[in-house]
Write a sequence for this structure.
């Protein structure tokens, strides 16, 4: 058992644009975050992951950076950042920065230079290629719809962008670029930040020659040519040697398309690359063959299979991150729970399910008060570039059914997660005194932080309890995972064991009562109910249990 502080930590993600606005311009800011640090400390979290606050033209809300060493004007100043670091540390918490280095903004000085001429010293900071008889160099489609290539007249070449055309991919094959990135990371670490969440870090190495896919289609998903590419481990090991290994920090790499085999290398226990990665496999359970917007129902069987695979395959080899939502995903209670009658209970059930697994849990802002998905009436009310590009391609250009596409946006759109944080029941949920950049979810009257803090049975205090349990019971962090009764149609049940301690975790994922039976091994075992999401649980024997809809329980069984 290799003990590490970042395994024992709970991380809270802040999406700064939507967290708290201190100056009334409708956009969250750094001073606004500082105002809420006590709220986070009180929740019990250890680490804050801050989505990008760097200078950016905001084509993708800060995930398009034009200066890695400057702060976005709307968010404040570098002095505010220094204060934020100090205030976080003063409360015994840590700060993990977002690091977006697969691509920069097209307004970054490097790209402005790179575009000027084919022999500019910055040309090879990006990926340029001649077209193929008037067509782009290959047929890869972008994460944000359309081609991954944009034509530039000055040099009659195309540049690669896996995301929007304002997010050109950086060329990691260029050692000068890599050195700039490592220097920039060192600069932030020397300022006192405590780690990095690395944006799509497993996309930084592309297959030689950038070939088209074999389908012959004009546009096709080229993931196999850039996800977990040939040199990605080499680059991460170099980054580790030159930067990460010199500090006691936390690192997590966002990694779409990574298998558990890949993860066992990225997050290897020897520590030569990263601490952990974010997998997408459980986030893809409700995507059909047509991808993210081709929504299909997820099943409990699939969830058990995917989560268990990650638990088993990384045991002793790597380390998991645990999440059910973030700024790119719909709200978990709307997606995996019930955001109507059982909103509070199912949010607590999902929290129990996630926090009892092996790995480092991540809480996304608003999750701790059970915020839900939103349904805006018209496409104009949405902000997200991914939504708008998809809508244009599908409806405006492709003639698909408006209502059907809107339905997919309601279920999967990223703006579900980005509506402003709901602090109280005053105008705009207390997020801003101005006009918010994205409308507030109309349910803020009921769902808000003040209500949560005034109610001892709230989701907020439930998270607080889960986090406290984690600090008190090593088995929650380090215990071995085992899925039990895998064919149960309603309950996700698993155990965790460490020495004499065993946890039995029971989560009813259905809106119906569910029966469960567990045989104790020895009469002397003692059983304690550590976590429960219902007000009272009648005395019951483990051998004959009935769980209410969305009920969750965690029993601690101690062997004598
Ligand atoms: C993943 C980030 O989480 C997402 O918000 C962003 O749009 C893409 N990477 C591109 O940076």
């Amino acid at each position: 058992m290799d003990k590490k502080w970042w395994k024992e930590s709970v991380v809270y993600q802040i999406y700064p644009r939507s967290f708290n606005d201190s100056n009334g311009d409708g956009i969250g800011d750094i001073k606004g975050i500082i105002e809420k640090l006590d709220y986070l400390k009180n929740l019990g979290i250890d680490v804050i992951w801050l989505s990008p606050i760097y200078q950016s033209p905001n084509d993708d809300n800060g995930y398009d950076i034009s200066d890695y060493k400057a702060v976005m004007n709307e968010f404040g100043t570098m002095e505010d950042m220094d204060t934020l670091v100090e205030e976080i540390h003063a409360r015994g918490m840590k700060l993990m920065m977002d690091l977006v280095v697969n691509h920069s903004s097209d307004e970054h000085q490097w790209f402005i230079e790179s575009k000027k001429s084919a022999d500019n010293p910055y040309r090879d900071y990006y990926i340029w290629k001649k077209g193929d008889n008037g067509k782009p160099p290959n047929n890869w489609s972008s994460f944000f719809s359309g081609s991954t290539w944009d034509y530039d007249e000055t040099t009659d070449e195309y540049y690669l962008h896996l995301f929007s055309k304002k997010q050109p991919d950086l060329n990691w094959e260029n050692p000068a670029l890599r050195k700039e990135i490592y220097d920039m990371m060192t600069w932030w670490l020397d300022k006192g930040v405590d780690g990095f969440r690395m944006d799509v870090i497993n996309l930084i190495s592309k297959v030689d020659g950038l070939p088209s896919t074999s389908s012959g289609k004009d546009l096709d998903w080229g993931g196999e040519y850039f996800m977990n590419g040939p040199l990605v481990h080499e680059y991460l090991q170099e980054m580790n040697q030159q930067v990460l290994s010199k500090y006691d920090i936390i690192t997590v790499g966002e990694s779409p398309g990574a298998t558990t085999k890949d993860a066992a290398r990225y997050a290897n226990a020897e520590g030569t690359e990263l601490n952990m990665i974010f997998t997408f496999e459980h986030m893809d359970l409700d995507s059909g063959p047509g991808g993210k917007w081709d929504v299909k129902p997820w099943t409990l069987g699939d969830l058990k299979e995917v989560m268990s695979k990650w638990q088993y395959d990384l045991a002793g080899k790597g380390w998991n991150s645990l999440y059910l939502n973030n700024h790119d995903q719909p709200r978990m209670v709307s997606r995996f729970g019930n955001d109507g009658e059982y909103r509070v209970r199912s949010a607590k059930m999902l929290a129990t399910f996630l926090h009892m697994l092996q790995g480092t849990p991540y809480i996304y802002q608003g999750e701790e008060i059970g915020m839900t998905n939103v349904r805006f009436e018209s496409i104009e009310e949405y902000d997200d570039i991914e939504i708008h590009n998809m809508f244009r391609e599908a409806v405006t250009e492709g003639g698909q059914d408006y209502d059907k596409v809107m339905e997919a946006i309601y279920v999967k759109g990223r703006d579900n997660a980005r509506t402003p944080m709901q602090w109280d029941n005053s105008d705009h949920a207390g997020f801003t005194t101005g006009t918010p950049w994205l409308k507030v979810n109309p349910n803020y009257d009921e769902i808000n932080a003040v209500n949560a803090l005034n109610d001892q049975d709230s989701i907020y205090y439930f998270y607080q309890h889960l986090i406290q349990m984690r600090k008190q019971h090593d088995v929650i962090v380090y215990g071995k995972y085992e899925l039990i009764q895998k064919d149960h149609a309603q309950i996700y049940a698993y155990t965790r064991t460490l020495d004499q301690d065993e946890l039995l975790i029971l989560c009813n994922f259905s809106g119906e009562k569910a029966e469960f039976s567990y045989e104790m091994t020895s009469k002397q075992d003692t059983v304690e109910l550590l976590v429960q999401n219902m007000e009272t649980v009648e005395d019951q024997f483990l051998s004959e249990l009935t769980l209410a809809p969305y009920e969750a329980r965690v029993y601690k069984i101690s062997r004598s």
Remarks:
- Residues 60, 63, 100, 163, 199-200, 254, 327-328 surround 1-deoxynojirimycin (CB under 6 Å).
- The domain at 109-160 is CATH 3.90.400.10 (Oligo-1,6-glucosidase; domain 2).
- The two ends are 22 Å apart (CA to CA).
- The mean pLDDT is 97.
